[in-house]
Fold:
Amino acid sequence: MARAPLPVSLSLQRLVLQNSAALAADQHAALLLSGFHPAPTGDALIGDALVNRQVQLEAWDDSGARGHEAEGDQAAIGSLDRINAAISDWVGRNVGRVLLGLSFPLILFITWQASSLYGWLPDQILPAPSLVWQTLQERIADGSLWDDASISLLRVLRGFTLGATAGLALGGLMAASRKLHDYLNPLFLAVSQVPTLGWVPLLILLVGIDEGLKNILVALSVFIPVTLGTYQGIRDVPHGYREVGQVLTFGRAQMLRIIILPAAVPAIFTGLREGLSNGWQTLVAVELLASTEGLGYQMSYGRQLFQLELVIATMLVIGLIGFVFDFLLGRIENHLQRWKVAA
Amino acid sequence: MSMQAKTRRPRLTRIWRAAALPLVLLAAWEASTRLGLVDPHQLPPLEDVVARGWSESRNGDFLTALAASLGRDLAGFAIGAAIGTASGLLLGFYRPAQSILGPTLRVHRQIALFAWVPLIAVWFGAGEPGKIAFIALAAFQPSLINTWRGVQEIPDRFHELAAVLTFSRLDFLRFVGIPAILPAIFTGLKAALIYAWQATIGAELFMTIAPGIGGVMMQGRQLFQMDLVLLTILLLGLVGAGFNTLAGLSEALLLRRRTS
Amino acid sequence: MTDLHLGHHLHAVENTPPSVEGVPGSDRHAILSLSRVSKHFDVAGRRVQALSDVSLDIQEGEFLSIVGASGCGKSTLLRLILGLDRDYQGEILLDGQPVKKPGLDRGIVFQEHRLLPWLSVEANVAVALRRSKLSPRQKRDTVRAHLELVGLEKFAEAYPAQLSGGMQQRVAIARALVNRPRFLLLDEPLGALDALTRLRLQDELKRIIRHEGITALLVTHDVDEAVYLGDRIVIMQPHPGRIAGILPVILPRAVDGSRSRSDSAFLRLRDHVLGQLGVGQEDAPIRAAE
Structure:
């Protein structure tokens, strides 16, 4: 049946909408609550290089006849060199971009410096950069920075371990048993609706303001995303792969080890990353609110004494730690997912 | 992983199961207070909490506090999400902006949100402006990131299509770019809403001037009124659930036409 | 080149059992027999009869093509034979025993290759040998041998995402064969590939299956493919899914056992099958198969 041709804009919109739905489905899982993760733009170029390689492999070998394969292999190996070349090209070509990227912070810094030089803002509102730097050095020198940082880090690690273990367990259990899921999920959902800090007054009344409070709160904020990620990851293993396991007569253990867990790792890991990010956030908040040592406490202390240089210096350290966490987890994630070629 | 055809479990079973655990917990609560197993300061009887809830909702204070909290939440959310989404669009579509502002924003993202509280409290004061500024900051981050990523992930084939149809920049934005990233923007708004609510509570716990749910909680804590604290937690949960439901519904509505 | 299990059929053509030449069923026994198999789905409150009273006997060593439009139940039938689905009426007997669950005696190649993306090509094939009683050394050798069989021994270390569609499907074929199944089920294995690759892989499939001496069951919507590869063709119709006819494929063969796709006998048979499917007749109503 012939159709009257749609106006270009409408058919284009439909094309866009159809493809956006697929995009939406993918993004939905990946982007929800991802506000604190860096975008892997740098990796995109490496991904491009890998995709080029794939395209080359495709072009060279589709033949059933074995004769062609030798040539195809040579070309495939050649493209490895091509990847190396691509990376060094990137660095060379992007010197300009790097400089541009530094321009904005530079301007901010100059403004900051000028402000303290010309006294546009009082020192209690905006201390001079040199003061901040001096404070940092002092704290490093007398070891107090290290002490506070290690206290905070230890708390995060403890809370993270606790929360992640519980989250993996609960997520796994709920994914394995529909029954358990039906019983436990409503309560889990209810708990997850309450903002983490909302539990603070209750917990203070129950356990006071010592380590227990911090552990529980950090663990809770880690627990929720890890459970979700684990549950989703396992349930979202494509049915097609499960069938492969059935057809190859895998037992339960083999199914788990060879098919389900590898397929679920990306989502589980996303949950873990988010958990760590949440845990760190929560720790800083709790230390600000109810602590007598740690980085958060230092900021609170600095604020009360109107020594903003202490606040700013500590913020920088907090930022650094956040960066390191993200970086490390990003590396681990890439390693675990080597088999994925960037789309 | 069963090989049998999966029978659809009737809705009723699911509802029974969902209610089971909460009912058991409520029963345990009632039992433990009746039997004197717990300190009434730590776990007040169920009736007391309910009664307190009833009386609080009748006197205006609770509602005023809730209204105040929601007010600042939405104000901060609106400001932060607007700036965040606009920035995401700018950085996504305009290369120079990305080069200049991108790295700075990336670094900014590394600093834990609550680390900004002392600074903001000093710069904006601990009253409304300070709270709203903090909430806006919280909403800014996720909407920026999601929008930006949405633009980055517009498939190349759309760009090619627009080129082949000789679209101008404006045409591209109107027919391809914006529709393609609406889901991402929406995801960003959802996340921003959640973060904004979290920040609202946090802000109220730190900057305790002016009414708000956070203030009520602090009051409950200071006066050792567990029933009040429990009620506020319930309220927080309800509001959070309300936001999520709202977001889910509007998403379903918005994206309804897009099922392929 | 190992000689393991690949048999001595290097001159497969001369040693082909005479029955493969197209005289159905006379001197072979049925190893798979379906009687009065029916299955229905309930979709949105309506009952859809996916299969209705399907009866079929499959002989050892033959290549059976099942052809029909989408929705005629051919894939469903395959899944029942495979043992992935036990919800049906009727009987499916393998060597006289009812089929209860999947087994390594039946290998399958799906339409989507379903290779596990986190395993290398070699590991993907090896994973099918987990339950096998062979020693690790023997396993490694047979994996390699089967990769050679499909021409991918040089890509053993590659990951599926790095291969083209045709190569991926060949790995899937290797995986399906590595357990030396008696039965090879193929569910539209070449459907997702481009036309040129499809033609090449058809020849490959033919070569490999002859080599191994396996009984093969191919489900396809491509009539040319069904006629080119099969010894018998089962024609299925949808609504409800049923067998409309079974044709023996009696065609001249060249010296190396291949058939020509443009031979007039081939074309006539193909057109006949198309006609049975309701295509290519101007006065026949065009029914949507969905």
Remarks:
- Confidence is low (pLDDT under 50) at residues 1-77 of chain A.
- The CA atoms of residues 53 and 77 of chain A lie 9 Å apart.
- Chain A has 13 helices and no strands.
- The radius of gyration of chain A is 26 Å.
